[in-house]
Structure formats: C-alpha cells, structure tokens
Design brief:
The complex is a heterodimer of chains A (122) and B (150). By secondary structure, chain A is an alpha+beta fold. Chain A has helices at 6-19, 22-25, 37-42, 44-58, 97-110, and strands at 29-34, 63-68, 80-84, 90-92, 118-121. Chain A has one domain (22-121): Glutaredoxin (3-Layer(aba) Sandwich). Chain A has five helices and five strands. Chain B has one domain (4-149): 2-Layer Sandwich (Heat Shock Protein 90), CATH 3.30.565.10. Chain B is built from five helices and six strands; from the N terminus they run αββααββαββα. Classes of the chains: A alpha+beta (122), B alpha+beta (150).
Chain lengths: 122, 150
C-alpha cells in the first residue's frame, strides 16, 4: 500500500467536512419543509422561519432541517415531514407558524405526534 | 406569489433541485433608469435546449407527481406585468441562469418582501449549497458569500 501523503489527508478532511456539516453530523431528527412553488405560495417560508426560531431556542444540535421540493400534495401545502430516529415519518399538512411551533414542542421535544394536523404516517 | 422574495426562493429551489452547489443571486435596483433586475444563476445539471422552450409553459413539468409547473411561468408573468423582460438560459452540465427585469415604479410591482427570510431559509435548509447574494441599490452594494462564513 502506498504511503499516505499530507495531500491525501487534506482530501480526506475536506471530504469528511463536506459530508458531515455540523447540522447533519449528529442529527437524529430530520425535519423536511416542502418548498415547491405550491408550498412557498401557501406560506412554507413562514413555517420554516418559526421552525428555525424554535430550534435555536431549544439549543438542540441533533435536529437537521432541510428543504425539499413538492411531493405532489399541492392542495394540502404547506407540508412538513418529520422523521424521528428510525420511526416512521409523519407528514403534517396545512401548516402555519403557530402549528409548526406546537408540532415542534409536542412532537419533537415530547414525542407526542399531533394527529390532528397530520396528513399521513409512513 | 405576494412578494418578489418568494419568487426568488422558488427559482433558487429549482437550482438546488438541479443538483447545484453554488447559487448566485444578483439584484440591482436602479432608480435612475427606473429598473429592477433580478438574476439567479446555478451550477446545476442544466436544461436541454428542447426542454428550455417549454419550461415557462405552466402545463409543462418534469415532475411526475403533478401535471403543472408554475414556478417559472409565475415569475415570467410577474415580470411581464411590470413591463419587464424575462430570460432563461441554460447549458447542460454547466447550469442555468434565470433573469427578470421590472419597471420599478410600476403599480403592479410586488414588494421585495422578506428577503432575509428567503436567504436564511435557503442557507439553513441546504447545508451543502453555497450562496452568493449580491444586492445593488443605486450604486450601493451589499455582498454575502456563504463560503466566507462557513
């Protein structure tokens, strides 16, 4: 096996940093805000904003927030998908800033799925 | 879309969905020439030329989950309403650039709205993507490059 050079180590370092950005590194909880044209027009950005505020206030580092495109349920936008660990994902529909805060506090922090806002599970 | 910043969010999402890792947003507000221009460039996989003619058709989409694709058509209409011009250019493998101009004092011009919110949603929601935001208002310029702060 050829020797590792400093250059190789640098490349490995860059790759690892790229693959494990701080937020995604230890993420156990993944929150996907669907931001297609339909979601954006229905208010997904405000949902995203309230979510960012809640995450910042919670001081949790194991939560990753990502945006995604439309999943085809345009009429129930804004949609938010929450994946906690290996549990089945829950999709919430007709979200707004307040519902998002409630879902964050109850579902993410306390583990109580807010079925009245849910579109589907799994 | 009630705000121009929502159109911007939408068009940038297109670029991210096209696999881009660098998005450049350039806004120029020029009171003297009564013109606002917004351009969004990405380094995603680009759009083939035969498809490029169809992207602003609201009944064209590459998605299979629904039959309409409104993002670019809405942005183009917003620009047309304000006596502006809309242009989209793309090269496969290199990326896409979408640009629109608006007459600044046009009564139908939507407000810019919450651009900070658009940018923060994009930056936080897409950790693997870098953004360059370049905003010029009558010669004064603000520039943010997320590669400088990450």
């Amino acid at each position: 096996m050829s020797k590792l050079t400093i250059e190789d180590l640098k490349k490995i370092k860059d790759r690892v940093i790229k693959e494990n950005t701080p937020r995604l590194g230890e993420a156990k909880i993944k929150i996907i805000v669907h931001m297609g044209t339909c979601g954006i027009a229905a208010g997904a950005r405000e949902v995203m904003n309230s979510l960012l505020e809640e995450v910042a206030a919670s001081d949790r580092t194991d939560i990753s927030i990502v945006t995604a495109g439309c999943m085809g349920m345009c009429s129930s936008e804004p949609n938010v998908t929450i994946e906690v660990g290996n549990e089945e994902p829950v999709i919430y529909q007709f979200m707004n800033a307040n519902k998002m805060r409630q879902v964050f506090k109850r579902h993410i922090l306390l583990g109580e799925i807010q079925t009245e806002f849910a579109l589907a599970r799994g | 879309m009630l705000e121009l910043s929502l159109h911007i969010l939408d068009i940038i999402e297109n670029g991210i969905n096209a696999g881009a890792d660098l998005i450049t947003l350039k806004i120029i507000e020029d009171q003297k020439n009564n013109k606002l221009s917004i351009s969004i460039a990405d380094n995603g996989h680009g759009i083939p030329s035969d498809m490029l003619e169809k992207v602003t058709d609201p009944f064209f989409t590459t998605k299979t989950v629904r039959r309409v694709g409104l993002g670019l058509s809405l942005f183009r209409e917003a620009s047309r309403r304000c006596e502006g011009e809309f242009k989209i250019t793309s090269r496969v493998g290199e990326g896409t650039e979408t640009s629109a101009t608006f007459r600044l004092d046009h009564i139908d011009l939507a407000p810019m709205g919450n651009l900070e919110s658009t940018l923060s949603s994009l930056i936080v929601g897409n950790p693997g993507v870098d953004f360059i935001y370049d905003h010029e208002i009558d010669g004064e310029r603000v520039r943010l490059d997320t590669r400088d702060i990450k």
